């Protein structure tokens, strides 16, 4: 089964398949093998990627995973594949960037009417003293920025609405 994880506003589809030394990680057209994880308790573990051991720390809050590896902290959001498909169909022609967790807007990077490309930084938000860049998952035109700098929002709130180019 494919799984979808959102990182910095971009969705990544991945899946695992078994192999002799653990699992193969399939991420798009790339395959990394072997990959394995040894849980050590209290949000700690060792991620083994092609024989290299990487210590990791993590915290899971519902569908949100806070992951610290190689000196960098990332916030991943698990998206149920069926829910992601339903949401995509619901907002066909209108794209939205949603809040991965409750927080406060630190800075906005775009204005309504601006044409943007996939991966463009839309805004910076802060949650639990951690800053996260919210990025566009697709090309489009900024339709509306829903929150101003300093305003707070809840998890899954629509932060920025985009329209598909040419609409």
Structure characterization notes:
With 167 residues, the chain is mainly beta. It has 2 domains: 77 residues, 2-Layer Sandwich (Glycoprotein, Type 4 Pilin), CATH 3.30.700; 73 residues, RNA polymerase II/Efflux pump adaptor protein, barrel-sandwich hybrid domain (OB fold (Dihydrolipoamide Acetyltransferase, E2P)). 6% of the residues lie in helices and 62% in strands. The protein has 1 helix and 16 strands. The strands form 3 sheets. An 8-stranded antiparallel β-barrel has the order 1-2-3-4-5-6-7-8. The two termini are 34 Å apart. InterPro entries: Biotin_carboxylase_complex (IPR050856), Biotin_lipoyl (IPR000089), Single_hybrid_motif (IPR011053). Keywords: Biotin. GO terms for molecular function: methylcrotonoyl-CoA carboxylase activity.
Give a quick precis of the structure.
This protein has 167 residues and is mostly beta strands. The chain has one helix at residues 81-90, and strands spanning 3-7, 10-19, 22-27, 30-41, 44-49, 52-61, 64-69, 72-79, 94-98, 103-108, 115-116, 121-127, 130-135, 140-145, 152-153, 158-163. Residues 87-163 form the Lipoyl-binding domain.
List the defining traits of the structure above.
167 residues, mainly beta, Glycoprotein, Type 4 Pilin, OB fold (Dihydrolipoamide Acetyltransferase, E2P), 2 domains, eight-stranded antiparallel β-barrel, four-stranded antiparallel sheet, 1 helix, 16 strands, 6% helix
């Amino acid at each position: 089964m494919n799984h979808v994880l959102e990182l910095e506003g971009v969705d990544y589809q991945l899946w695992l398949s078994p192999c002799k030394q653990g699992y193969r990680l399939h991420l798009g057209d790339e395959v990394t093998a072997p990959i394995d994880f040894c849980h050590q308790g209290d949000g700690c573990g060792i991620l083994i990627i092609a024989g290299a051991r990487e210590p990791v720390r993590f915290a899971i809050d519902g569908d949100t995973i806070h992951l610290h590896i190689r000196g960098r902290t990332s916030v991943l959001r698990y998206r149920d594949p069926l829910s992601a498909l339903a949401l995509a169909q619901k907002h066909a022609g209108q794209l939205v960037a949603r809040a991965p967790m409750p927080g406060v807007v630190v800075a906005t990077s775009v204005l309504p009417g601006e044409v943007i490309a996939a991966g463009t930084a839309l805004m910076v938000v802060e949650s639990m003293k951690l800053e996260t860049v919210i990025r566009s998952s697709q090309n489009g035109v900024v339709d509306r920025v829903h929150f101003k700098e300093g305003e707070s929002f809840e998890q899954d709130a629509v932060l920025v609405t985009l329209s598909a180019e040419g609409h």
